[in-house]
Design goal:
The structure holds 2 protein chains of 2 kinds.
Chain A (H helix, E strand, L loop, with lengths): L8 E7 L4 E2 L1 E8 L2 E9 L5 H5 L7 H4 L8 H16 L5 H27 L14 H8 L5 H13 L1 H7 L8 E2 L2 E2 L5 H23 L3 H5 L4 H10 L1 H5 L1 H12 L10 E4 L2 E3 L15 E3 L2 E4 L2 E3 L6 E4 L11 E2 L23 E4 L5 E2 L1 H8 L2 H10 L3 H10 L1 H14 L16 E9 L2 E10 L2 E8 L1 H5 L11 H6 L11 H8 L4 E2 L6 E2 L10
Parallel strand pairs in A: 2-19, 7-15
Antiparallel strand pairs in A: 1-3, 3-4, 5-6, 7-10, 8-9, 10-11, 12-13, 12-14, 16-17, 17-18
Helix pairs in contact in A: 4-6, 4-7, 4-15, 4-16, 6-8, 7-8, 8-16, 12-15
Chain B lengths: L5 E6 L9 H10 L7 E7 L6 H4 L4 E9 L7 E5 H4 L12 H12 L6 E8 L4 H17 L1 H17 L1
Parallel strand pairs in B: 1-2, 1-3, 3-5
Antiparallel strand pairs in B: 4-5
Helix pairs in contact in B: 1-5, 5-6
Classes of the chains: A alpha+beta, B alpha/beta.
């Protein structure tokens, strides 16, 4: 072969730090760029199979333990599925007590992801020559950076809202079909409002560098540029710093992906509430939908299917709807073709990314529509969407705390139902979360869960189409294969979370491969 | 949350055989009356969110499954510094207790509480759970330093006899 035709090709395996559970990324590099990628969930847990045969309400206790950081989202989905099965109609108070805990979880998760995980990459030695590196170290150095220490303190306080509403945190189980099982007192509601107000003040001061109202006025890329130049406070906030660093690191040029967005929607607005969703609509705070380009279609859970052609499960042809899904581990006999414990969920046959950016696109947020129209989805816009999502949550939460009537009902007893099936879909902090539940004779007959990371981190499907972040990695330039920080940016922009695993303290960490 | 000054925070998942030591010790401790001022908490997979149980306490004893600290020993007592030596270099969803322990000196108001970890190596059984429960209760009540000096006095007493 002539020398000119020989391409520099190399495969690297990258275990990922700062994700929940076990994730390994394998990429093939050609001429310094990712030519192909494989995402492998390396841990089987079997929560769904564990639920089969248990009492019909057991998902309310077990599924919040799927994850230590998004247990409220799992509880929400489990309760919604049982609402549907039993025909329950929770009173407004019950609905609001659910919403407020779920949104609090988002507040904590969004801030922690940015300040403690995503921005931690800015102190990577790869950026030692960057003009903003020393400032990044002052802010985001692990354990001691100014922003890190503050984020730990502030997110600890705000999560008390869930402990107050749900009786405990984490792993609350206070949502039940028909509403909630805990009734907050007036002084507890006041305490929640105080905690929320404190967190908002800190968020506006330290992260936005402006009021939420000022940020909400940004409607386009031009507005965004003008906002950054408008004042020193805007540039000095963690958001402004992120924008400046992202420009220097060209984060808007990596992590493109398929360009399909999926959102299950969240927080149905109870009758009589003054809260409004996007466009002034009164049905939900965040609408569900599937978007590609300018087109947004309403979400229909019937269009969800899971493929296992490249997953370590017993094969079946094509995809199966979760109500018909099975989870039968099958780890031998197909190594090479099968490479992940994650299944490959598809919507109407297509892979789709989910998360805050998908929420913004499906909701028709003008700034994010403009950003994606100009530069496509990318690392910068994905992380920006996550960092500013709280802006829309604060006003809704404040209004809903004001609307809760402590002396009114929080629960309406549903009829006892022995057989049926139901779907509970919501937005977890990392994106679309669904529980599909079948009960028979008062027992769980089938329980299928599709998490946001199952969407984002899926392996290839029956057609051989890559999952969203596999696709987003393709084309990423990697300057130093021994320190592939660029791959970390791409994966972390999705907030990878392969479900909670074993949290055992380890005395030593002996790792043979590069972790990022 | 009550104002108990001494807390035993049991960490882990009931559904993972190699991570259920903490919840089992929690059950054991709750099955008998506790001394005044000691509170037992099922910390689950709380990770960094367990910070709220440390703030304002006089002494906190975490109970968790451990691996690789003292081969051959089933139940051991570790300082916060010892227990956090395997912490990841930065926070992650899987940061867990090790990250929390390492971050504590930077995020807590002074004076810092005494923080210790009772660890169980390997899969827990009835004996190791009972020993870990007794040790965590003893440390929560008396503290590691007083407990250690008490043991020395006891040893000296035995030698003199």
């Amino acid at each position: 072969m002539p020398a000119a035709e020989v391409k520099a090709s190399r495969r690297i395996e990258v275990p990922l730090n700062r994700v929940e559970g076990d994730l390994e990324i394998r990429v093939e590099l050609q001429d310094g760029c990712v030519a192909d990628a494989w995402s492998s969930g390396t841990l089987y847990r079997g929560i769904e199979n564990m639920l089969v045969g248990r009492g019909s309400y057991d998902g309310l206790v077990i599924t919040p333990r799927v994850c230590g950081i998004c247990g409220t989202a799992h509880l929400t989905a489990a309760a919604m599925a049982l609402d549907q099965i039993t025909g329950a109609s929770p009173p407004a108070n019950g609905i609001l007590a659910r919403h407020l805990a779920l949104l609090t979880e988002h507040l904590q998760s969004d801030v922690r992801h940015a300040e403690l995980m995503f921005f931690a990459d800015f102190v990577n030695p790869a950026y030692a020559n960057c003009a903003l590196h020393s400032e990044a170290v002052r802010r985001f150095a692990p354990f001691q950076g100014r922003a890190v220490v503050e984020a730990i303190k502030e997110t600890r306080k705000v999560i008390e809202i869930i402990a107050i509403l749900g009786g405990q945190w984490p792993h609350s189980s206070y949502m039940v079909p028909g509403g909630v099982s805990t009734v907050p007192k007036k002084n507890e509601i006041l305490r929640c409002r105080h905690l929320l107000g404190q967190f908002r003040a800190w968020y506006e001061h330290r992260i936005l560098g402006c009021s939420c109202a000022r940020w909400a006025a940004i409607q386009s890329c031009a507005d965004l540029d003008a906002w950054l130049d408008e004042s020193l406070a805007h540039r000095a906030g963690d958001l402004g710093f992120f924008m400046r660093f992202a420009r220097e690191a060209s984060l808007d040029r990596i992590g493109r992906g398929h360009g399909n967005f999926l959102c299950f929607g969240q927080c149905a607005i109870p009758a009589g509430s003054a809260v409004r969703g996007p466009g002034g609509k009164s049905d939900c705070l965040v609408p569900g939908g599937f978007a590609r380009g300018e087109t947004v279609l309403p979400f229909d859970q019937e269009k969800v299917a899971e493929h296992v052609a490249h997953s370590w499960y017993e094969d079946y042809a094509g995809g199966r709807h979760p109500f018909d899904g099975v989870t039968r581990p099958f780890a031998s006999g197909a190594e090479g073709r099968k490479y992940s414990w994650a299944k490959a969920p598809r919507y109407d046959g297509q892979p789709a990314e989910t998360g805050p950016l998908a929420e913004m696109i499906v909701s028709g947020h003008p700034l994010f529509r403009d950003l994606v129209a100009r530069g496509g989805p990318n690392v910068f816009v994905r992380e920006l969407a996550r960092l500013v999502r709280p802006v829309a949550l604060f006003p809704a939460m404040e209004q809903w705390f004001a609307e809760i009537g402590p002396d009114e009902k929080f629960y309406t007893a549903p009829p006892r139902v022995e057989d049926g099936r139901g779907f509970g879909g919501t937005e977890a902090s990392r994106g679309a979360l669904g529980h599909w539940v079948k009960i028979a004779g008062g027992r769980i007959e089938r329980y299928q869960i599709i998490t946001p990371t199952a969407w984002n981190g899926s392996p290839r499907d029956s057609e051989g189409v890559r999952g969203p972040w596999e696709e987003a990695l393709v084309g990423t330039p990697v300057k130093d294969p021994e320190n592939p920080v660029e791959l970390g940016h791409v994966i972390r922009s999705f907030d990878a979370c392969l479900v909670c695993t074993v949290h055992t303290l380890e005395g030593r960490r002996a790792l043979a491969r590069t972790r990022i | 949350m009550s104002r108990a000054a001494r807390r035993i925070v049991c960490v882990g998942s009931r559904f993972a055989p190699d991570d259920r030591a903490g919840p089992l010790v929690c059950d054991a401790l709750r099955s008998a009356p506790l001394p005044g001022g000691v509170e037992v908490i099922d910390g689950g997979l709380g990770g960094l969110d367990l910070l709220r149980f440390v703030a304002g306490a006089e002494r906190v004893v975490f109970v968790d499954a451990v691996r690789g600290f003292a081969p051959g020993k089933r139940v051991l007592l570790l300082s916060a510094a010892e227990a956090s030596r395997g912490a990841l270099p930065a926070y992650g969803h899987d940061g867990g207790l090790a990250y929390l322990l390492r971050a504590l000196p930077n995020v807590l108001e002074r004076p810092l509480p005494e923080v210790l970890v009772v660890g169980i190596e390997g899969e827990p059984d009835a004996e190791s759970v009972a020993r870990a429960a007794a040790l965590s209760l003893s440390v929560a009540t008396r503290g590691a330093r007083r407990r250690a000096s008490g043991q020395k006095r006891e040893a000296r007493g035995k030698a003199a006899r």
